[in-house]
Structure formats: C-alpha cells, structure tokens
Specification:
Structural class: alpha/beta
Number of strands: 8
Strand order of the largest sheet: 1-2-8-7-6-4-5-3
Order of helices and strands: EEEHEHEHEEHE
Number of helices: 4
Largest sheet: 8 strands, mixed
Shape: globular
C-alpha cells in the first residue's frame, strides 16, 4: 500500500484467501443465502458472499459487544426496505474474522469496507453510521471514481 495524500491510498488488488472461484454452472454455492442474488440486502458474511453479491458491496465489521455496532445494526435492520437494489451490505463478525481484518487493515469494530466482487478494496471508513450514511458513502465514491486504482481511507 502506498499513501499519496492523507486521504488517498493506492492499494494493490486484494483477494481474501477464502473467496472461491465462481461456480461454472451459475448456481449459488451452498453457503450463499439465496437473497444475495437479488441485491438490496443486509446479510451475514459468508465465504462466497462477496463473489455472489450484486452491485455495490459493503462489509460492516460488527461486534455484538460494541455499542456503536449495535446502534448501526439496529438502524439498518429497521430500514431494510430502504437498502438500494444495487447495494449488498454484509455483516462481518469482527471477533471471528481475523484473516479479513488483516487483509483490509481493520483495527476497530464498526469499520466499513467497500469492495468489488473480487474483494479489491475500494473504500474504507469508520464512524457511527446510519443506513443513509452508508448509502451516501457508496454513492459519493461512485461519482468520484475516476481512477480505479485509488482507494479512499478515512483513517
């Protein structure tokens, strides 16, 4: 990773070890919830979820002991119908996801990571967020994504 400016980081393609190849017959792998194919969902992270997700993908590093995470989780769950169809939010268990935390440099819970279907980091941010904040972050990045090799980090 090369830091060019305080808020811009150039990150090589990141592919977490557990991300499998896409299936050849187009079927969903057994650990992928069927709803993920629809988009506009909030689901627990699985090893194949990123590859199978549609549209924009955000990983939410959640801990059940974190007050901020609980508040964010509650807001998302109360607004499930407002998740845009092109957005998949995957809740990652902060305590259990050691490899993913290392892959994306996540040091604290309530961190959000936007990735593409290959697992490549697009954007990383952390603060108390509502579903509307998450959506704005994703849409704001898409409008400014003129250089695909750059990833924004707010750390």
């Amino acid at each position: 990773t090369i830091t060019c400016e305080p808020s811009v980081t150039i990150t090589p393609e990141v592919t977490p070890e557990k991300m499998p190849e896409e299936t050849t017959n187009g079927a969903l792998p057994s650990d992928t919830p069927k709803a993920i194919a629809e988009g506009g969902v909030y689901l627990p992270y699985t090893s194949t979820a990123v590859v199978q997700a549609k549209g924009d993908i955000v990983l939410f590093f959640y801990a059940n002991w974190c007050p901020t995470c609980i508040k964010v989780n509650k807001n998302i769950e109360e607004n499930l119908k407002k998740i845009p169809k092109n957005l998949t939010i995957l809740r990652v268990n902060f305590d259990d996801a050691t490899e993913l935390r290392e892959t994306y440099g996540v040091t604290e819970q309530h961190t959000f990571i936007q990735v593409d279907n290959t697992g490549k980091l697009i954007k990383k941010w952390r603060w108390e967020s509502l579903l509307s904040d998450i959506t704005a972050q994703v849409q704001g990045w898409a409008a400014k994504a003129d250089v695909p090799d750059k990833a924004v980090s707010w750390f």
